[in-house]
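C-alpha cells please, single chain.
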Amino acid sequence: MTEFLALLITGVVTGGIYAMLSSGLVLTYVTTGIFNFAYGATAFTVAYVYYQLHSGLGWPTILAAPFSVLVFAPLLGIVLDRAIYQNLAKASGVAKLVTTIGVLVALPDMFLLLANWAYGTLHWPLLTQSIVSLPPGIGPYPPMVWTIASGATINSDQLAVFIAAIVVSVVLALLVKATRFGLNVRAAVDRPSLASLRGIDPRRLSTQTTVLGSVIAGLAGILIAPLFSLDPTEFTVLMFVAAAGAVLGRFRSIPMAMLGGLLAGVVQSLVAGYVNIQPSLVPGLEAGVPFVLLLAGALVLGRDRGRVAGMVAEDVPFRDYLNDLPAWRRRLPWGAALAGLVVWIVTTSPYYAFLTSEGIAMAIIFLSFVVITGTGGMVSMAQAAFVTLGALVAGLLLAHGVPFLPAAVIGAAAAGAMGLIVALPSLRLGGLWLALATLAAGFVADDVLFQVPAIQGGGAGWPIGRPVIGPFDFNNSASYAILLLVIFAVAALITRNLARSPTGRLMSAVRSSQVGAETAGASAVLPKLMLFGVSATFAGLGGTLLAANNFRIDPLDYPTSVGMVWIAVMAVFGTRRIAGAMVAGLMYVLVPQLLLAVSNSTFLPTILFGLGAVSLARNPDGVMALYGGLLRNRRDRRRQRAMAGAPSSTTVVTTPALQHLRNGPGVPKRTTPALELCSISAGYDGVEVLHDVQLVVPKGKLVLIVGPNGGGKSTLCCVAAGLRQPTSGRVYFDGEDVTDLPPFSRAGRGLLLAPEYRGVFPGLSIEDNIAVWVRDKGNRKAALTRFPVLAERRGQPAQLLSGGEQQMLTL
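Here you go.
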C-alpha cells in the first residue's frame, strides 16, 4: 500500500504539471487554430527569467515569482501573438506548424544569449549556465518533506504543483463557464466564422487567450524546474508529453485535456513502479509511456473528419521564377555552383572538406523533407528517428563483417520499412494529427527502441568507417565529399522524377481534395505510403553517410528534438526545392563556423535558423524563392520598359454609377441609405461571381433579391457582412465605408447576417446563443418571449432543436 500511495502521489504531481500545460495548449488552439509547439519554450523562458531574478539578481521569491508570472509572461504572450501568431490566421497548416517550431528553436536560446551578454557586457550578476540541475522553487529551499498515510512522503515543491493544478483548473472552469470571455471562447470553438459575425473580435480573443496561456505556461515552468531541471530540451519534451492530454480533449475540451494530462502522469508513474519487465527487453518504457498514449490518442481520436494533407486554398502554388528563361540559362547557374563546390572541395583544407562532406550528408537527409513535405504536403516529425535507425542498423551490420555498401542499403531499407510502419496507421490522419502521430513515434523510438542493447552498440555506439569501394578509398574527406555529391545527385534525380511521376501527380490531387480524388477513382493510400517510404529511406541513407563522416553512431546523436531544428532550417531555404536541400545542408554545418568570426556563442546559429523559419515559413519556397522572385521582377520590368519605351502611367477612373451613389461633386444631396454596395465584383479562386453589382437598401425598407441557385446571392450577402472581400468596389453602411472592416466590426455597428446554414452555435445552450449577442439579461428575456418554444428549452444545446427552431434562434 505504501508503494502504491507513493507512486500515486508522484503520478498526480507529474500529472498536475501535464494537466496545466495541456489546458494551456487547448486554450490557445481553440481560439487561434495554432497548436503551439513553442509552448514548452514559453514555460522555460518564464522559469529562466524567474531563476535569474531570484538567484542572479537576488530578488526575494515573493517579488520574483509574481513579476515573472503576472508581468513578464503576459508581455511575452502579447509580443508573440502580435508579432507572429496573429499573422498566421490565414496561413496553411504546414506554415503554422513550422512557424511555432521556429519559435521553439529560437526563443530559449535568445534569452540564454541575452543573459550571457548582460553578464559579460553590462556586468549584471546573472548566472550564465544553460542547464541548471537544481533551480529554486517558490517554496522553501531545501524543500520541506512531510510523511502522510502509510509512510508515503510529499515535499513542498510537489505540494505546490498539486495546489497550482487545482487552482488553475478551478479558475479556468470559472472563466469558461461564468464570464463573457469564456462565452466568447466557447462560441469561437463552436463556430469560428459565425462568432465573428456575432461581433466577437478573433484577434482580440487570440491575444487574450495567448496571454492567459502564457501565464499558465509560466506558472507551470516555475513549478516544473525544481522537479526536473531548467533545460530547454527537458521543457520541450514535457510539453510534448502534455500534448497527450490535449489529444484526449480533442483540442476542444479544456476539462478533458486536464484530465488527460493527469491520467498520463499517473499511468507513467504506475508503469514505472509496477510493470516488472526485463530491462534488456523493453528499456526506457517509463519515459516512453506518455508518447505511447499520445500516439494511441492521435490514431484513435484524430481521424480526420474533413480533408487530409492540405488543400489548394491553403497551399501557395509553386511558382517557377525561371520559366521565362531558355533551358541553358536555367541550368547555367547551378552548373557553375556545382563546379565551384567541386573546386572548393578539392582545394580547401582537410577541416573544411570534412565540414563540407558533413553538409552534403545533411543535404541528403534534408531531401527527405522535400519528398514528404514539399511533394506530399505532410509534416513528419520522425525524420531524426529514421536517420538514427538507418545508421544503427548499418553500424550493427558493419560490426558483423558486412561490407559498407550492403550495410548502408540495408540500413536505408530498415528506415524505409519503419517509415511505412509509421505511415500505415496514420493514413487517415492529416495536418496536426499526423504531425503529432509521427512526433510520438519518434519519441517512442528514442526512448524504447534505441535503448535496446543489441541495437545500441554498447555505451560508445557503433564505429562506422568510410567506405572503400574497389580501388577507390574514400577515407580522405575530399574524396568522400565527392562521393556524397554523386549520391545526392542520384537522390535528387529520384526526387524530381517522383514529383513528376503519376504518384506525384496523384499526391497533388489528394492535397487539393482527397474526397475529389477518391471520387475520381484514385486512392490516397498508395501515394502517401510511397512518399513516406521514400522519405524515410533517404533519411536512413543520409544517417549512415553522416555517421560514416563522423566515424561513429550513437543513439543519442540525433534525437527527435534535433529533428525539429532540421525542420526549421529546411523551412528557411524551401521545402519544395531540391536545391534548397543542398543549400540548407551546407548552411546548417558552415554557418556556425562562419559565425565564430562574429561571436563564439553556440546560441547564435540556432536563433538565426529559428527566426528564419518564423519569418519565412509562410513562403513554402523559402529564401531562395524570394531571391528568385526579385530577379524575375527585375527582368519583367526591363521587358515592360523595352516594350513601352517608357514607364507606363496609371489613371484612376471613377465610374459614373459609383460617383452618383456616393454623392460626388455636383450630385444633389439625398438621404443616406442603410446599406450600399457600389460596383462590387467578387468571386472564388479567380472565378468571378459578382460583376460590377450596384445595390442600395434605403432605411426603413425591405429589399428582396431573387435568383436561381449559383446566381451569387450568398456571395453578395457574404461581401456585405465581411466574410468575403470584393476584388473591386466598396461597401457602405449608414454612410460609412466598411469595406476594409472585418465581420465583427460590422456586426458591432449593427450590420448582421442571418446565414442560410442556420446561424447558431450548436454546442452552446439556447440562452448562451442569445447571450453572445444580447448582453443585457432583461433584453434576453424579452427576446425569448417572442419565441415561447425557445423560452421553455432555454437550457438545452441548440443542436437538439429542429430546423425551424434553429432558424427561430437565428432570428
